[in-house]
Amino acid sequence: MRAAAPPYRGEGSRALWHVSEDARLSRFEPHRAPTALTDEPLVWAIDTRHLPLYWFPRDCPRCTFWASDRTTDADVGRFLDGRRSERIHVIEGRWLERVATAELHLYRMPERSFTESADTAGYWMSREPVEATEHTTIGDLVNRHATAGIALRTLPNLWPLWDAVVGSTLEFSGIRLRNALPHP
Question: What is the model's pTM?
C-alpha cells in the first residue's frame, strides 16, 4: 500500500469525504468511475489526511508527492527542499486562476459501510448507497494550501516532473493527468 501523506496544519479529526463542484448532492450511488481500475460499482471517499489531494477543480491535472520511510535523503533534497515532512502539489500554470476561484463542496460520509482501499492509503470504498451526513463549502484554495503548509507550485508542463517523481523513491498521487498538456 502507498504510504499515507504527512499531516497538515489544521487537519482536524479523521473523517471520510466526497469532494465535488456540485452543490446539490446528498445521496451517492455505487457506480463504475471512468478512471477506476475495477468494474465493480463503488462509492468513493477520501479521508481527512488525503483531502488536500482534492482541493482542486475536478478536471485539474495535478502531481502530488511526499516522503515515506523508504524515501532516500537524495530524493528529499531533490524534490522536497530537504524537508522530509513536506507535501508538494503541482499544477500547470494555466490552471492557477481556476484553482484560485473554485468553490468546492465537501460531503462528509458515514463510515459504517466503507472499507479502506488495499492499494492506496486514504481512499475508501462503499458497495452500498450512501447518504452524506454533512455538507461544507470551501473556496480560496490557493490560500487553503498555504494555511495548511502544503506547497502549491505551478509548471508550464507536468510531465517532466511527473516522470522524475514516478522514478524516485517518493510517494505520489497523480490525478486527472489525462487533462494535462501533452508530454513535451
Answer: 0.94
